[in-house]
Amino acid sequence: MTSVCAQDTTKEDESFYVAKKAFDDGFYDVALSLLKRFLDNYPSSERSSQANLLIGQCYFNQNKFLDALNKFEELLNRSESKDIQDALIYWIAEVHFRGNNFTKAKSFYQRIIDDYPDSSYVQAAYYSLGWCLFQEQKYQEALVYFNKLEEQFPAQAQSRDSALKIIECLYNLKDYKGLKDKARLYLKVYAKDSDKSSVIAFYLAEADYYLDNFADAIEGFSRVIRNSADERIQALAGMETGWAYLKLKQYNQAL
Length: 255
Prior knowledge:
By secondary structure, the chain is mainly alpha-helical. The chain has 3 domains: 9-62; 79-173, Serine Threonine Protein Phosphatase 5, Tetratricopeptide repeat (Alpha Horseshoe), CATH 1.25.40; 195-255, Serine Threonine Protein Phosphatase 5, Tetratricopeptide repeat, CATH 1.25.40. Helix content is 79%, strand content 0%. The protein is built from 14 helices and no strands. α4 packs antiparallel against α5 (85-98), α7 (122-135) packs antiparallel against α8 (139-152) and α12 packs antiparallel against α13. The longest helix has 23 residues, at 2-24. The protein is elongated, with a radius of gyration of 24 Å. The model is unreliable at 1-6 (pLDDT under 50).
């Protein structure tokens, strides 16, 4: 009898592992089929809540947001899902974010921060709250959450992303001196982040332009044009260079 139970447990573990592997590898149709079969075969499994959560995430990654929302909300009301409440609240927030319903998304992200301070989703909640406010053009409020993320999770990858969003917020707030300080700090802390260096250099040159440091702006834009592989940024830098020359009344150079 013990041997039979052990075999059943092994089969259950293997079934879940295969379904999870398909999900992790991005084969969401396959994962969805395997997860549903897992729940049919092992309805009393301790992993049933996790399997249902993955089903909701499959729908989300397939852009079936209504199906995902229905699954997450259904699970949220189940007593057996108490161990994944923070995950469910986060994914409900993500669905609303993808639907541009930032008011609802913010309320769910805030619930994670307030009710589950030790959750692994807190970091993402801070970042996404900042993003919601940024999308609503509430840049000063967005700064609060991006700064909190940087302060509380300095070693995480999203901390670097928050630093970039802080620079964008400062630009939109026309705080060009603050932008220059933050951009220089970014280049110092993330010196190896070469893929973003041209973007930061562009913002630094823009700040110089709006601070009437036109010669410095021209030098900065010229570096962007030389070093950036992004044609869009190169074009913007070229246009801004022309404006800076006009400000200096060097009309021939502006052409």
